[in-house]
Amino acid sequence: MTPAMQNKEVLMQVRDFSLLYKTRLGPLSAVDHVTFDLYKGEIIGLVGESGCGKSTLGKALLRMAPPQAELTGQILFQGEDILQFDDRRLRDFRGRCVSMIFQDPMTSLNPVQRVDQHLVEAIQVHEPHTPAQAALERARSLIGRLGIQERRLRDYPHQLSGGMRQRVMIGLGLVLNANLIIADEATTSLDVIVEAKLLDQFRELRDELGITILMITHNIALVAEVADRIAVMYAGQMAELGSVYEVFDAPRHPYTQGLLASVPTISLNERTELFKMGGEPPNLTHPPQGCRFHPRCSQALPICSQREPELRPVNGGQLVHCWLYQNHESQGAS
């Protein structure tokens, strides 16, 4: 836990969580023994390359994994393990406690339903005794807070801009007063102006309502503008976790260092080449022995190819999954 988080109240605890798919090529560990906490009123960025398990983990926090997936460990929401919820309890949990903003709102919204119908339906499904008029008033109040004119309630998704559709998706996440919003690549389809406005909206919602926001993105520079903490995933595992200042000012894991070095800055000129990380992410049906990053790592030690490191604190609260910061001499190599 970072010093800034010590006085925060824990909202969700993920403990030794794994998600495994059974494939024709063998078991595939999409999320592998991940442990971290989410705190009330924080914005945390979850970053990494495509295929590293970010979206899989985000959906798992809503228990949206396919039926054939094997889930182990614990996901504790306010002390209750959602992996033990029955269908009725899970249905109430989704939307009311945790909600998700998907990557493309155009495919997530029903094209034959107006905006008001989306919001009223969400309310009445979870609160069946709420009259339609009362639900509509809640919808009006909410979209006004999100900067959408009331007359747009009667519009269909195709009549809205990309940024406005994304705000409707945020509204669907907030209409039941969810404690945690998971934004999965929510800004990918937006231009930079709308993207900046959406990030401002996330900050305002966090400050006004005290909600927790988990931003899943491959764009590590994006979360630097808005996040309190950053979690870096690689090959289904948590590589590094710390405050935005710790991770950007002093990245510890070689993978995090590579991600940051590959981000363009205004100091680059035409003679400066962006850093390109060598190699490719591993095949998760047959991951390399030891640290999963060692085949691509320029700082690898002999033990890195033999034993897997643990996620341990470095310099106070920053957590790193790397042998460079562990006393491997005393532990020995197998």
Summarize the structure in words:
This protein has 334 residues and is of the alpha/beta class. The protein has two domains: 3-97 and 178-266 and 273-281, 3-Layer(aba) Sandwich (Rossmann fold), CATH 3.40.50; 109-177, no CATH class. The protein contains eleven helices and twelve strands. The strands form two sheets. The chain has an eight-stranded mixed beta sheet, with helices on both faces. Strand 1 and strand 2 (26-39) form a beta hairpin. Helix 4 packs across helix 5. The radius of gyration is 21 Å and the shape is globular. The relative contact order is 0.14. Mean pLDDT is 87; it is low at 329-334.
Q: Per CATH, which architecture of the largest domain?
A: 3-Layer(aba) Sandwich
What's the CATH superfamily of the largest domain, by name?
Answer: P-loop containing nucleotide triphosphate hydrolases
Tally of distinct domains: 2
As a percent range, the share of strand residues is: 15-25%
Strand order of the largest sheet: 6-7-8-3-9-10-12-11
Q: Which CATH top level class of the largest domain fits?
A: Alpha Beta
Helix content: 25-40%
The overall pLDDT, averaged over residues, is 87
Shape: globular
- Distance from N terminus to C terminus (CA atoms, Å) equals 30 Å
The CATH topology of the largest domain corresponds to Rossmann fold
Q: What is the total tally of β strands?
A: 12
The number of helical segments is 11
What is the N-to-C order of secondary-structure elements (H for helix, E for strand)? EEEHEEHEHHHHEHEHEEHHEEH
Output the structural class. alpha/beta
